[in-house]
Amino acid sequence: MNRKYRKTIIAGNFKMNKLPSEIRAFAEELKTLVPRARWCETVICAPFVDLPLGMKYLKEARISVGAQNMSEHPKGAYTGEVSGEMLRDLKVKYVIIGHSERRQYFGETDLTVNEKVKAALELGLQPIVCVGESARQRELGLTEALINYQVRAALAGVTEEQIRKVVIAYEPIWAIGTGNTATAEQANEVNRTIRSIIRGLYGARTARATTILYGGSMNEKNAYELLAQPDIDGGLIGGASLVPEKFAAIINAANQE
Length: 257
Ligand code: 13P
Hints:
This protein is of the alpha/beta class. It is 42% helix and 15% strand.
């Protein structure tokens, strides 16, 4: 973390977990466990149907609300889709774009990711853009080239004004849901690479101000070490975000002096 230059964010990604009827209890429990956050912004990215209640109860617990996806289209005949404007109407602040599960199971490509990022920014939503390599890509030494391509593709056409609202999350696919966390050094190395790509595209000042998260089996045990790295500005947390005690411990790790 580097709190002097950029915001620390601890974001939970509920994925397809938590019913609307479970949101209030979660928010209330978390509120009792976390003192007023001094350094970090806490976010929960909830399923679409949880968002209306999330806007009430999570906000009361001082937690910002995000979605996990949105359509690249503004409106119209796209059965089953949810538009950015619908999220904005609820006053949702963040939206995860290009999570590896969406790329893997729902056919999202770097080009649709780019369209979604631009659509979100035009509506004033803050995208949390996910990038990351598979185990095989890492074995073959392709991590840096892949990250370089994914970041550049996601941000193609994003202006210098807009980039300030973008959060990037490095999520190695091999670390997601496996218990197999990247080491703090591995994670920091890729985050540093991402920052240097941003520097090349937007300049040093913007790169220094960009929040770059790590995600992939981050938990209450490894959070402190990961967050101590200079280029890891927070976490995108799946499994551990579902359990208030675990998520609170990660937030508290980010709040340490
Ligand atoms: P886990 O923390 O369950 O590994 O999930 C990480 C993730 O995909 C967050 O978006």
